[in-house]
């Protein structure tokens, strides 16, 4: 047998010898083939035969051969068939025995079936169609509730998604953060400087405002004190005359001088009314608030000095910090650039307080009682704030309403109304018709035209109304005085006592007229209590009872009825008048009967007309039926 080295050397020589057809055949007995293809095929077949015939290791034996070799010796040829037969029998036995063991094991592991047990008989509820329908309906309702809850949750998620998309878009469209920071930084610095400026000037504004208010209060107090002193002096003078003692002896010279001065002022007022051609005026209805030339000059000089000082308050301040229009333009720029942050900063709530010092400076020379005083609408601060409030809201804002619409009402509530309340408390004279009319006109303008409907229950407005009521009560208690004299002292209409009594009566009628002018602003119950219960029933009726029925009495009753607001009598039913006017209507009834007995038919008809005006229809019908005045029945039907 050739060795492995020889075989490898022969294989290396064979490819080298093939191109020259020079090789060493393994079988030297065969002849050399002439063809190269034949030679190559022979060489390949020879290689394959060599590889097939070479056995370097023993062949693998089968399992049967190995078991047979184990059971019998290898050299025992006779027992080979017998061993193979035994092996086959053993394998067959194993194949038959294995399924039986598996079946026996499975039968042992199989659980024993439980024996059925029968309990006591249980009666089940009857099942009908209605029960099944009810259960199905409840099940459907439960599923519908769950479905609706899922729908709501789905809607909420969709809203959150849309909101997130909008937020993302806004953030993408937002301007440069550096520019925004620069604007906010500049605005913060401007507001800080503005507040510091106002804090420094505020004490000077308070001093000048207090000085003007004290000057006006001093003037009003002087007029009120003079009127009360004149009333006391004249009343004492008339008391001495009725007592028959002649002129008073104590301080007689001083009393004469004051009486002469009082008569001189009355004569001047008569001349003034004659030049102005005022008709239907009664003595005692003048306010008697004239000041002498010296007092007027001193008052005007002091006021001019205060106004001159007020002009110097902001003379060292740049216009950007003392001009209301320019200040509002700064905030308007903020509103146009960043409307949402403007609203979030509550600027509309801060502006009224911020502008308060500048508005008060412009109001130093303003008085709600003077005829020549400028209207609020004509003042620069009012026009500037009005223009700022009327500017349309930016379309970029997501807010529904414009908060700047409330800036002007808040300015009026926080600055104007407290100032008016201070004037009413210290300066207003309820006996002055001109002051009362100007004040009522201003209040109507503020409460109705200045869009204060959203602040109807504001504390400042309520404080103003309460102060008006308090001042009218004080005037009724201190300024009304109607003396009662014997008939002998007042029969002569030219006598001093009669003239003094008439002046006091018409002064009370004037106060009644001023009180009733507040109807519509002050509560009706309060006005009726002051005007009817206290003034009419307590003072005026006493004088009417002591006045003989006739043209003079009817004239007084007409003037009183003319002051009553017509709306008080619009919704009265059952032919009765106001409860506060029952005594007054009884007086008219007595006057009508007396006049009819004295054959004064025209005056009687006038009294019946007065009863109809105050809706005392029952009393009027009684008079018509009693005196057969059928031609007046048509007035009642109207």
TrEMBL record:
It comes from the Eukaryota. It holds the Pfam family GCFC. Keywords: Nucleus. Residues 325-539 form the GCF C-terminal domain. Residues 1-52 are annotated as: Disordered. GO terms for biological process: mRNA splicing, via spliceosome. GO terms for molecular function: DNA binding. GO terms for cellular component: nucleus. Belongs to the GCF family. This is GCF C-terminal domain-containing protein. The lineage of its organism: Eukaryota, Metazoa, Chordata, Craniata, Vertebrata.
């Amino acid at each position: 047998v050739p060795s492995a080295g020889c075989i490898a050397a022969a294989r290396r020589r064979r490819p080298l010898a093939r191109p020259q057809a020079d090789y060493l055949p393994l079988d030297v007995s065969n002849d050399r083939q002439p063809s190269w293809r034949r030679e190559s095929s022979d060489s390949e077949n020879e290689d394959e035969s060599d590889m097939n015939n070479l056995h370097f290791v023993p062949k693998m034996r089968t399992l049967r051969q190995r078991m047979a070799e184990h059971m019998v010796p290898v050299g025992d040829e006779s027992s080979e068939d017998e061993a193979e037969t035994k092996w086959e029998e053993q394998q067959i036995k194993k194949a038959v025995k294995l399924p039986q063991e598996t079946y026996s094991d499975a039968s042992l592991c199989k659980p024993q079936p439980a024996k059925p047990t029968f309990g006591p008989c249980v009666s089940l509820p009857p099942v009908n169609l209605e029960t099944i329908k009810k259960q199905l309906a409840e099940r459907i309702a439960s599923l519908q509730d769950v479905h609706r809850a899922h729908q709501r949750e789905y809607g909420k998620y969709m809203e959150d998604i849309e909101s997130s998309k909008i937020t993302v878009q806004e953030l993408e469209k937002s301007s440069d953060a550096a520019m925004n920071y620069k604007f906010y930084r500049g605005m913060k610095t401007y507001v800080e400087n503005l507040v510091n400026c106002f804090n420094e000037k505020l004490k000077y504004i308070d001093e000048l405002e207090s000085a003007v208010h004290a000057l006006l209060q001093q003037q009003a107090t002087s007029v009120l004190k003079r009127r009360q002193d004149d009333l006391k002096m004249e009343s004492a003078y008339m008391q001495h005359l009725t007592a028959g003692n002649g002129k008073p002896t104590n301080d007689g010279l001083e009393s004469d001088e004051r009486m002469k001065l009082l008569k001189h002022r009355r004569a001047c007022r008569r001349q003034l009314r004659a030049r102005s051609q005022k008709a239907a005026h009664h003595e005692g209805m003048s306010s008697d608030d004239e000041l002498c030339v010296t007092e007027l000059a001193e008052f005007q000089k002091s006021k001019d000095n205060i106004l001159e000082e007020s002009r110097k308050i902001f003379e060292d301040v740049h216009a950007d910090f003392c001009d209301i229009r320019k200040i509002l333009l700064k905030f308007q720029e903020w509103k146009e650039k960043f409307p949402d942050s403007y609203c979030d900063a509550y600027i509309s709530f801060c502006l009224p307080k911020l502008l308060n010092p500048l508005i008060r400076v412009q109001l130093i020379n303003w008085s709600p009682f003077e005829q020549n005083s400028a209207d609020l609408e004509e003042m620069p601060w009012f026009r500037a704030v009005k223009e700022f409030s009327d500017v349309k809201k930016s379309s970029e804002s997501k807010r529904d309403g414009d908060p700047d619409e409330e800036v002007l009402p808040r300015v009026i509530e926080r600055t104007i109304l407290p100032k008016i309340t201070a004037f009413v408390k210290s300066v207003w004279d309820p006996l002055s018709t001109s002051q009362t009319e100007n004040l009522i006109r201003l209040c109507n303008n503020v409460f109705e035209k200045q869009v204060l409907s959203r602040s109807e229950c504001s504390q400042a407005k309520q404080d103003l109304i309460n102060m008006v009521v308090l001042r009218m009560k004080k005037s009724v208690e201190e300024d009304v005085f109607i003396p009662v004299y014997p008939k002998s002292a007042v029969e002569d209409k030219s006598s001093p006592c009669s003239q003094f009594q008439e002046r006091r009566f018409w002064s009370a009628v004037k106060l009644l007229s001023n009180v009733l002018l507040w109807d519509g602003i002050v509560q009706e119950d309060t006005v009726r209590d002051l005007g009817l219960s206290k003034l009419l029933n307590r003072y005026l009726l006493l004088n009417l009872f002591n006045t003989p029925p006739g043209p003079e009495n009817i004239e007084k009753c007409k003037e009183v009825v003319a002051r009553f607001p017509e709306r008080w009598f619009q919704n009265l039913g059952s032919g009765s008048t106001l409860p506060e006017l029952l005594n007054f209507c009884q007086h008219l009834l007595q006057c009508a009967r007396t006049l009819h007995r004295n054959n004064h038919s025209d005056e009687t008809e006038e009294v019946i007309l007065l009863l109809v005006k105050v809706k005392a229809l029952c009393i009027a019908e009684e008079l018509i039926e009693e005196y057969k005045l059928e031609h007046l029945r048509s007035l009642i039907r109207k």
